[in-house]
Amino acid sequence: MNCVKCKSKVCRTNEQCKTLSVDTVQSLEEYHKPENQQIVNAAAQLVDDGRAGTLSRLQEIIEFSKLMNYSKLGIAYCYAMENEALLVAEIIRDSGLKINTVSCTCGGLSQDKINLESEIQNVSCNPITQASQLNIDKTEFVITMGLCLGHDILFQKYIQAPNTVLIVKDRVNNHNPLNEIIKINKNERNKILRF
């Protein structure tokens, strides 16, 4: 499939395109499972009836958590965003929800112990332990803030609770990769490819 190159966009008119390989009957069966219906309904309450664009991402997270009856949230954050994680945790706590926070450096393991090809003995990010701690804490919903690419993949692989991203790490674009994408023209596209 290559949806961005599609000219007809029939999927936006409740019609299935001919290049789709997925059996949508199976997808509907998955959507109709009670645990998925709860998420679908909570998401719909945040988007439908003209609500899209009226809440910030943080407000959506708080409201979604309440709609899902989550009471214990977790934040997995990069140590470089500790001040921001503290502020987000305070806002969530003030909204009446419980919150646990786990830094990427939890466990204090050195890079050479985690990465068998490294000789660096500085403290390493430790996303597997980060996820494991939040699992032990029995968090019901987890927010990630600024986990490095790769570390976020391992975190998502090991976390058991549903999770969402509040802040994606992009040091060049002040953690907003959309800034770069919006301003890309042909010259800048070539610049991106020559890193």
Give the secondary structure arrangement, pairings included.
Elements: H1 24-31, H2 34-47, H3 57-67, E1 72-77, H4 82-94, E2 98-103, H5 111-114, H6 127-136, E3 141-145, H7 151-158, E4 163-167, H8 177-183, H9 186-193
Parallel strand pairs: 1-2, 1-3, 3-4
Helix pairs in contact: 6-7
Instruction: State the low-pLDDT regions, or none.
Output: none
For this structure, the CATH topology of the largest domain is: Rossmann fold
Q: What is the string of SSEs from the N terminus onward?
A: HHHEHEHHEHEHH
Shape: globular
Number of domains: 2
**What is the annotated CATH architecture of the largest domain?**
3-Layer(aba) Sandwich
Judged by helices, strands and strand pairing, the structural class is alpha/beta
N-end to C-end Cα span? 29 Å
Q: Supply Rg.
A: 20 Å
CATH class of the largest domain: Alpha Beta
| Helix percentage | 40-55%
Number of strands: 4
Give the strand content: 5-15%
What's the story with the biggest beta sheet?
4 strands, parallel
**Strand order within the widest beta sheet:** 2-1-3-4
If helices are DSSP runs of H or I spanning 4 or more residues, what is the number of helices?
A: 9
Q: What is the mean predicted local confidence, pLDDT?
A: 90
